[in-house]
Design a protein that fits this description.
Blueprint: E1 3-8, H1 14-24, E2 37-43, E3 50-58, E4 61-69, H2 72-95
Parallel strand pairs: 1-2
Antiparallel strand pairs: 2-3, 3-4
Helix pairs in contact: 1-2
């Protein structure tokens, strides 16, 4: 699975990039057709100022999840959990008819 990670308004350190890679790469287990996955990390002016957007491209669709939290790790974890559910629902809807 190909993964693109972008950080907006800051430079992400290697530890954060490794964490994102570890979490997001688990999405491949739920649907082999997920490719590529785009992850955007951004700082926002909100109190929960860490924003994560995950775009997963599946055949015929683009799934998007966005989460805000106090830490990037928390936002990534929430977004990946929601994306897992969305991928499973999409796979069931498309292939289990």
């Amino acid at each position: 699975m190909k993964m693109n990670v972008k950080s907006l308004k800051f430079d992400a350190d290697q530890k954060l990039l490794d964490f994102v890679d570890k979490k997001v790469s688990k999405l491949e287990k739920f649907f082999d057709g997920v490719d590529p996955v785009d992850v955007t990390l951004a700082l926002t002016p909100d109190p929960a100022n860490k924003s994560v957007q995950i775009k997963a491209h599946v055949p015929g669709e683009e799934l998007i999840i966005e989460r805000h939290a106090k830490t990037f790790e928390e936002a990534v974890t929430e977004a990946v959990d929601l994306m897992k559910e969305k991928i499973v629902r999409t796979k069931e809807r498309k292939f289990d008819k």
